[in-house]
Structure formats: structure tokens, C-alpha cells
Amino acid sequence: MPISSLGVIFLMNGRDIAVFAARTADDKKATDIVIYDLRGLSDISDYFVLVTAHSRAQTRAILESVARELKRAGIHRIGQEGNDAGRWVLLDYGDCVVHIFSPDLREYYALESMWGDAPRLDWNQEPEVVLPRRKTGTDVA
Fold first, then answer.
1. Has residue 78 been placed in a domain?
2. Helix intervals (H) in 1-141
3. Taking Cα atoms as reference points, which of 65, 80, 73 lies closest to residue 23?
């Protein structure tokens, strides 16, 4: 359950990771951003985030932004898969899996046809997710 303080929600669960990833992808100009709520429908993950990136550089920017900011918050990915051409990347955070596709591979894999009956999470209507910052040895009091 997210911890709330003064209307700010701190990232704690798969739903929050999904919303954060969707907003980060949107900031990097990804298109066709969808979050599927798979709770009770899949043992793989609770949330799938699907985004379309239109270049290798855009794929890399989305990947690096999501991974970097979540890592800074102390949330580490379980795994990463993908192809060297940057046409598809999967970031596995356990309760949330983020898929970054080129347009042709998104159509080829057609995850929407597999999970299309799952409820969609309207990430634009979700409260802002603010990542907590881990204290490091370099933080000044």
C-alpha cells in the first residue's frame, strides 16, 4: 500500500511502478501507452505496461530513465530482456513488467490480443507518484 503524506504518494507497489513507468515513457514521447491490471489473471505479474518507441534512441531513453529513477529509489529490477537492435525491451520489476516495443514488434507480439480482456488502468487519472530518495553516504545533513 502506498504511503501518503500531504497528498504525495510514495512508490511502494506494482501499480505505482506501472504509473511511474507510463508517465516516464510519456515524458520521452512514447505512444500507445497502456497499463493492464493482471491481478487475478496471471501468475507472471500484476501489471503490464506497454509502450511504443519509434527509434532505438527513444527506446534507450525510456529504458534508462525508468531504470535509473527506480534504482535511485531503491527499487531494482529483477531482470531485463530484449534485442540488440533496440526494437523490444522488457523490464521486470516483479509486480510490474514494462514492455518497450517498436511499432512493428508490438504488432507482431500482439500482447493486446492476449491480455485485451484485462482491465486497463487509466494512468492519466492516477495520483502523481513521487519516488522516495534513498540516503547515501554522500548526502549532506
1. yes
2. 14-27, 56-72, 103-109, 111-115
3. 65
Would residue 62 count as lying in a domain?
Answer: yes
* Number of helical (H) and strand (E) elements in the chain, helices listed first: 4, 8
Kindly state the average pLDDT of the residues 65-90.
89
pLDDT band at 86 (very low <50, low <70, confident <90, very high): confident
Angle at 52 between CA 48 and CA 34, to 5 degrees: 35
Tell me whether residue 132 is in a domain.
no
Please say whether the beta carbons of 120 and 9 come within 8 A.
Answer: no
| Tens digit of each residue's pLDDT (9 = 90 or more) over 43-52 | 999 999 999 9
Mean pLDDT of the chain: 85
